[in-house]
Design goal:
The complex is a heterodimer of chains A (about 170) and B (about 450). With about 170 residues, chain A is α+β, with helices and mostly antiparallel strands. Chain A has helices at about 20-30, 45-60, 140-145, 155-160, and strands at about 1-10, 35, 65-70, 75-85, 110-120, 125-130, 165-170. Chain A has 4 helices and 7 strands; from the N terminus they run E-H-E-H-E-E-E-E-H-H-E. Chain A has a 7-stranded mixed sheet with strand order 2-5-4-3-1-7-6. Chain B is of the alpha/beta class. Helices cover about 40% and strands about 25% of the residues of chain B. Chain B has 17 helices and 16 strands. Classes of the chains: A alpha+beta (about 170), B alpha/beta (about 450).
């Protein structure tokens, strides 16, 4: 099984489905699109995880990732080809406004992921195992027992009050 | 570099020293976070600090660029390297990151605010040039803006060190590459003149704001003195007046930064200037909610106001006219009036006892060409001081009305010590504070 991240999102400032639609339309136009990772106030950007992912991207020309729409309970699979991370305690505006949806333009986010693919997938097409909750390091002890347990459903995943999960995954079909 | 050691600059300096001792950039970041109106000039602190130490080594951390200018010019590539998840970020880089982010945020806010009121760009099509004065007027950043949808993008294209005129581009244009040279020609021919200084955005539309004066290096000098001696010291002002507001830089500075200001007056005899000042002031609506501002069109006279002000600022015409030009032109042409004669200077200075509150101060500008008579106008009930001492601030003399008039030019060269440096002319600006004698 391969390790990767799942990022939480929801259509907060656009119509239902608008977040994915805006990203995929830029992806069609430019072959790449920046995804801004927002996090909750109680979360901390997992800098060492981002560093590891960056090394992996350099080695393998990309790292797969998943995006979880908690409003519509839908899952997307994408390929990350770059990561931009703000220095500790800071946030970044879009690394390239042309390649990011306009609703991001005034905002600043702790990290950005550059994708060259993003498509809807079925949760049931994959097996996932919990591998970590690095954006909430203080909860590490209480969640220790979850590590290596299967993720049975998107509903259970959603119950964790985080915007980033580290999982192991493999395709089953 | 103009450095008058205000408490705010001292705080930034302490934050910088703190970083060197403890390795923590937090205090520096904290000061910038509080600076919502973008008054602080972090470039000034860095330049002042490293000019003294003559080194860019900070403790165990080494500044990777030979100079601050070099860093500014390569800031985009530097920023990309900072965004790498694999980057090792030292505290000094954090400090520069905070400085750059604060600065860019300021510029983007200004362009968003000004877009509708000034027509400086429509989504996906607008681009242009602007100048930003930082480092205590020691650096003029020649910058380009472009719009991407509703998002302004900004980039430094060139830096002019120690600018001696507001649009002092020609003397350095030879150093530019061809691309930059073409850009700059475009800039100088553009309909929009945009200057940013200490959190104030001034736009002059050359097509509509006919004969609107400034912003000139004179006005920028007064604005920098106001910033360091009034705003950064958090001097409480209830009311202020600008006489001869031109394009509105000083009026907008007062509106943005003056602590406690409730009433602001500006007067100019030229209607276009009043209109331009109004437009620039209107972009500050969200900053100046509690301020009552009054813009007056007409001539200033010492008996015009029956009230007093805590602060009066004025950048008046200060170029003495030869006697026969004065007498031969009772109805002095407009361009003479904008720069020539000392009538307004005298009128404003002599009105000080009538228009200043007991704690009030008047800041005005004169030149080495007219300093003796300026001082002679000061009433015996007042006293004066020179914030830049007797050395003043040497600047280019590029007043076309004079340079195109052989008699006037010869008068200034021979009788007023206008400096002729191989065909380039210079004089020295002397800002003066006037207060009531107690």
């Amino acid at each position: 099984m391969r390790r990767t991240v799942i990022l939480r999102f929801r259509d907060m400032t656009v119509e239902d489905g608008g977040t994915i639609e805006e990203h995929t339309s830029l992806l069609t136009r430019y072959s790449q699109v920046w995804w801004g990772w927002w996090m909750r106030k109680h979360e901390t950007p997992p800098r060492s995880l981002f560093k590891e992912l960056s090394h992996e991207i350099e080695r393998e020309s990309g790292v797969p990732g998943f995006w979880f729409d908690v409003g519509r309970m839908m899952l997307y699979h994408g390929n990350m080809v770059d990561i931009a991370v703000a220095p500790p305690g800071r946030k970044l505006s879009s690394p390239d406004p042309q390649k990011s949806p306009s609703y991001y333009h005034r905002g600043e986010y702790p990290a950005w992921f550059l994708l060259n693919a993003l498509e809807e997938v079925k949760f049931s097409d994959y097996e996932f195992q919990y591998f970590g909750f690095p954006s909430e390091p203080e909860q590490e002890e209480t969640r220790k027992h979850m590590i290596n347990l299967p993720v049975p459903s998107l509903e259970q995943l959603k119950k964790f009050d985080v915007t980033l999960w580290v999982v192991k995954f493999q395709k089953v079909k | 570099m103009l450095l008058l050691n205000s408490p705010a600059q001292q705080s930034l300096n302490v934050a910088l020293s703190d970083l060197e001792k403890s390795g923590s950039p937090d205090e520096w970041a904290f000061i910038h976070r509080l600076d919502r109106n973008f008054l602080t000039d972090g470039f000034l602190t860095l330049l002042a600090h490293y000019e003294n130490t003559k080194t860019y080594d900070v403790g165990q951390y080494s500044f990777p660029y030979p100079s601050l200018n070099d860093w500014i010019m390569h800031a985009d590539e530097w920023d990309k390297s900072m965004r790498k998840a694999t980057a090792d970020i030292d505290p000094y880089s954090m400090l520069l990151f905070d400085l750059r982010q604060h600065f860019e945020k300021q510029l983007k806010i200004f362009f968003r605010r000004a877009r509708t009121s000034t027509g400086i760009g429509t989504p996906n099509s607008g681009s242009g040039w602007f100048l930003v004065f930082v480092g205590g007027l020691s650096r003029c950043l020649v910058m380009r803006f472009t719009w991407f949808e509703s998002s302004p993008q900004v980039k430094v294209e060139w830096i002019i060190d120690e600018p001696r005129a507001a649009f002092d581009v020609w003397p350095t244009i030879k150093k530019f590459d061809n691309k930059a040279r073409n850009y700059l020609k475009e800039f100088l021919q553009s309909g929009h003149k945009i200057i940013i200084h200490r959190g104030v955005f001034i736009h002059v539309d050359r097509r509509h704001d006919i004969n609107v004066f400034g912003p000139s290096i004179d006005t920028l000098l007064l604005a920098e003195i106001l910033a360091q001696e009034v705003f950064e010291r958090e001097v409480q002002l209830d009311s202020a007046l600008e006489v001869g507001c031109g394009s509105g830089l000083l009026t907008c500075s007062l509106a943005t930064h003056a602590k406690g200001l409730t009433e602001l007056f500006a007067i100019d005899s030229h209607f276009g200037s009043v209109s331009c000042t109004h437009r620039n002031l209107s972009t500050l609506a969200d900053v100046t909610r509690n301020l009552k501002s009054y813009l007056l069109w007409g001539d200033f006279r010492s008996d015009l106001f029956t009230r007093k002000f805590d602060l009066v600022v004025c950048n008046p015409p200060y170029l003495p006219l030869p006697r026969h030009i004065q007498s031969a032109n009772p109805h002095v042409p407009d361009y003479f009036a904008a720069v020539g004669g000392t009538r307004l200077l005298k009128e404003v200075i002599q009105s000080a006892p009538n228009i200043l509150t007991p704690r009030g101060r008047m800041l005005l500008l004169t030149s080495s060409l007219s300093l003796p008579e300026t001082l002679s106008y000061i009433p015996s009930t007042c006293e004066y001081s020179q914030p830049l001492g007797e050395n003043g601030y040497r600047v280019s003399f590029e007043v076309e009305a004079v340079l195109n008039n052989p008699e006037w030019k010869s008068f200034l060269l021979q009788e007023r010590n206008l400096e002729d440096d191989g065909g380039l002319y210079f004089h020295t600006l002397h800002p003066i504070w006037i207060t009531l004698r107690h």
